C-alpha cells in the first residue's frame, strides 16, 4: 500500500493541532513515491460522493475499483463534499464509515486518499474531517484545507476554495458554516493566494496541477465561480499550471482555457447527479459535458498526460491527452 511517508504524517500531526488558533507559515507538503516501474503516475479523481452508498455511490465505487486495478493507481483524489448533507458531526460520526470506509472497499482503492473540503463539509464539524484521529480509523484518509503533494514529475496543489465564495458569508444564510480557522476571511484568502503563488513559482515539476472543490469554469448547475476567476485564475495562468481539477457541479466536464494551456476538469459525479442541468452561458472552450454519475482517471508519463472520464457503468465517455517536454535542469 503506497501511503505518504511517516515523516509527512508527523508533519501533519504537528501542523494541524489546534488549527483554529494558528496560521500555518506555508502550505504543508507531502512526498509521494510513484508505483510505476516506468516512472509513470496514475490516480483517480472523484467528488461529491458521501451519501452512504445511495444515488449510485456504491456503483461508482465498484467501477473505480475495477479501473484502479487496471491502472495500478498510486492514489485517489477527492474534490470535496465528502459527507452529505452537512459534513461530519464529529470525529466519531458513523457517516465516515458509512460513506467512505465501507464503500470504497476494492483492493485497488486501499491507497492514499488526498481530499479537500467542499461547501457541504463546511456545514458540519470541519475540525473533525481534518483531525488525525480519522487516520487512526482509516489510514487512507488525508484531508487538509490546502497542501501540496509532490511526486517530482507531477506536483499537485490542493486549495481550499469555499472561503472564496462570498454568498456563504451572507447574513442571514440558509445554512450555517464552521469557519473556525478561516476568520478573518480576507486575511485567510490573501495568505493562501500568496503561499500558492510562491509554491507554484518554486516548482520544478514537469506538470503542475491545482485541485479545488469549486469550478473556475463550468457549464453545470453552478457555472463559473467568479471569485476564483478573479482571484485564482490569474495566478494559475501566470505559473504554467496544466490542469485545474474540481468538483461542486455534479457532472463530468472538460473545458479548455482561452488564454493559456490550462484544462479545467470537473469530476463531481461520485453520487447524486443533476440530469439536464446545464448553464447556457459562457460555453467557450467546452470539450465535453456529461450530466450523469462517474469519475475520472489521470495518467502521467514524463512527457505525456492522459485523461479519461468514465460513467457509472465504467464505460469511457471522454478521452483527452497532450504532451510536453520536461523542464531543463537548472
Automatic annotation (TrEMBL):
Residues annotated to bind Fe cation 1: 48, 81, 84, 250
Signal peptide: 1-25
Cofactor, how bound (note): Binds 2 iron ions per subunit.
Pfam family, one: Metallophos
Cofactor requirement: Fe cation
InterPro entries: Acid_PPase, Calcineurin-like_PHP, Metallo-depent_PP-like, Metallophosphoesterase_PAP
Location of this chain's protein in the cell: Secreted
Keyword Signal attached: yes
Molecular function in Gene Ontology: acid phosphatase activity; metal ion binding
Keyword vocabulary terms for this entry: Glycoprotein, Hydrolase, Iron, Metal-binding, Secreted, Signal, Zinc
EC number: 3.1.3.2
Record-annotated Calcineurin-like phosphoesterase domain positions: 42-251
Main subcellular location: secreted
Lineage: superkingdom: Eukaryota
GO cellular component annotations of the record: extracellular region
Record's catalysed reaction(s): a phosphate monoester + H2O = an alcohol + phosphate
Binding site for Fe cation 2: 81, 119, 213, 248
Gene3D superfamilies xref list: 3.60.21.10
Family the entry assigns: Belongs to the metallophosphoesterase superfamily. Purple acid phosphatase family.
Protein name: Purple acid phosphatase
Biological source species: Lithospermum erythrorhizon (Purple gromwell)
Amino acid at each position: 500500500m503506497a501511503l505518504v511517508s511517516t515523516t509527512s504524517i508527523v508533519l501533519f500531526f504537528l501542523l494541524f493541532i489546534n488549527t483554529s488558533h494558528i496560521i500555518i507559515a506555508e502550505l504543508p507538503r507531502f512526498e509521494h513515491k510513484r508505483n510505476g516501474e516506468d516512472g509513470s503516475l496514475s490516480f483517480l479523481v472523484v467528488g461529491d460522493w458521501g451519501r452512504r452508498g445511495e444515488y449510485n455511490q456504491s456503483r461508482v465505487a465498484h467501477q473505480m475499483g475495477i479501473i484502479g486495478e487496471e491502472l495500478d493507481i498510486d492514489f485517489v483524489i477527492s474534490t470535496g463534499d465528502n459527507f452529505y448533507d452537512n459534513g461530519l458531526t464529529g470525529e466519531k460520526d458513523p457517516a465516515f464509515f458509512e460513506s467512505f470506509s465501507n464503500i470504497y472497499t476494492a483492493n485497488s482503492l486501499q491507497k492514499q486518499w488526498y481530499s479537500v473540503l467542499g461547501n457541504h463539509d463546511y456545514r458540519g464539524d470541519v475540525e473533525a474531517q481534518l483531525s488525525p484521529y480519522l487516520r487512526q480509523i482509516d489510514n487512507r484518509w488525508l484531508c487538509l484545507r490546502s497542501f501540496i503533494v509532490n511526486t517530482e514529475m507531477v506536483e499537485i496543489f490542493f486549495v481550499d476554495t469555499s472561503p472564496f465564495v462570498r454568498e456563504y458569508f451572507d447574513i442571514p444564510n440558509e445554512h450555517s458554516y464552521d469557519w473556525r480557522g478561516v476568520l478573518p476571511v480576507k486575511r485567510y484568502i490573501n495568505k493562501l493566494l500568496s503561499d500558492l503563488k510562491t509554491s507554484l513559482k518554486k516548482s520544478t515539476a514537469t506538470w503542475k496541477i491545482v485541485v479545488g472543490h469549486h469550478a473556475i469554469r463550468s457549464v453545470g448547475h453552478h457555472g463559473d465561480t467568479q471569485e476564483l476567476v478573479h482571484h485564482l485564475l490569474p495566478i494559475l495562468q501566470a505559473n504554467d499550471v496544466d490542469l485545474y481539477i474540481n468538483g461542486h457541479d455534479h457532472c463530468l466536464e472538460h473545458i479548455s482555457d482561452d488564454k493559456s494551456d490550462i484544462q479545467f476538469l470537473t469530476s463531481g459525479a461520485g453520487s447524486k447527479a443533476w440530469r439536464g442541468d446545464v448553464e447556457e452561458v459562457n460555453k467557450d472552450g467546452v470539450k465535453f459535458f456529461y450530466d450523469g454519475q462517474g469519475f475520472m482517471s489521470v495518467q502521467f508519463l514524463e512527457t505525456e498526460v492522459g485523461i479519461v472520464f468514465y460513467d457509472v457503468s465504467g464505460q469511457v465517455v471522454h478521452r483527452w491527452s497532450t504532451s510536453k517536454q520536461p523542464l531543463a535542469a537548472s
